[in-house]
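note to self: dont lose this again. the chain is below, predicted strucutre after it. 372 aa total, dont forget to put it in the shared folder this time
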Amino acid sequence: MSADFYQLLEVDRTAGADEIKRAYRKRARELHPDANPDDPEAEDLFKQVSHAYEVLSDPETRSRYDRFGDVGISGAGSGGGSDPFGGGGGFGDIFEAFFGGGGGGRRQAGPPRGQDLEVTARVDLMAVMFGTQVTVEVNTAIVCTDCSGSGAGSGTQPVTCTDCGGAGQVRRVRQSMLGQMVTTGACGRCGGMGTVVVTPCSMCSGEGRTSSRESYTVDVPGGINSGQTMRLTGRGAAGPRGGDAGDLYVHVAVAQHPRFAREEDDLICELPLTVSQATLGVHQVLEALDGDLDLVVPAGTQHGHEFVAKGRGVTHLNGRGRGHLRVRVSVVVPSQLNEEQESLYRRLAEISGDDVASADKGIFSRIKSAFS
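---
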C-alpha cells in the first residue's frame, strides 16, 4: 500500500495550497538525487513526494484523492499506478462516464463522421431473380475540391485550438452536494475539432465539403426482397473538415408483377382453365419469366391443383440454387351461355344424373334462397 500523500509532504490534511507548495520545496531539496547521490531510497522517496505534490496541488485530483484514496487518482501524474478497473484511464474515465459529457469517455479530437443517407432502389421481379445493377441518386455532401476537405483557404492550414490545446474538449469543475464534480465537454471554440480555421475556404466557407447530387451504381443481389436494405460503406455524406464519410443505406422495393406473385423464393401464378379443359385435359405453353415451359394438364384436373416446376423460381439470396415455379389451376365457369351451349350442358347433366336448375327461368326466379 502506498504512503499517504499528506504524510509524504509532512502536512495536515487541512493544509492550504501555499503550505503544500512550501512543504514540497523543502522535502524536494532534502531528497533530491543530487543531494543524495548514493542513496537509492532517497531517489525513490523523491519520486513519491513529487507525485504526491502533483496530486495535491491540483484541486480536482486532490478532491478525488481525499474521497477515494489512491483509486481516485489512478493514472494521474507521473507516478500513477496501474488502473484497477482495467480501463487504462483510471478512475477519472469512470467518473466522467457518470458526470462527463456525452455518455462517458473522451471523444478523440478531430472532425466528426458524416451523416448516413438513405435511398430507395425500385426494381422489378425479373431483376431480383438473378440480380441486377441499378443507379440511385442522392443529395449529399462531398469533399470540397478547393481545400481538399481542410476548410482552410488557399495557402493556409487549420491551427491548433488555443482554448483546448488541440484536445477538442475542456474540463470544468463544479460544486455539488457530493463535492467537486468534473465534467468534460466539447470545446466551444473549435467545436471538438481540436483545430480552428483562421482563413476559411471561399468555396465551402470553412466547412470542408460542398453539396452535390451524386449517382451511384448499386449491385442488387439475386433473391433480395422488398423491405430489405443494403449498406454501402463510405457512400454517405462526407464529414466536415475531412471527417470520414457516413454510409449509404439502400432500401429495396420490388414492384408487383401482373402475373407472378412471390412466396419466399417461389414464384406463384394462376392458370385459368375452362371446364372442358380441366375435364378433358389440355397442353399449354406457359410464358415464365425466364423462358417458356410446356405444361400438360391431364384430364380431370381439379380446381386449385398445383403444378410445380422445380428450380424455376427466384435465386436463393444466401445460398445456391433457386426456388420453384408453382402454377395453380383456376377452373373458370362460364357466366353466360348461348342456346346451343346450354342445351349441351343440360344434356351432359341429364347423362350424369346431376340435379340442375329448371330451364324455366320464371319458376327458378320465384324460389327464395336463404343465402345471399
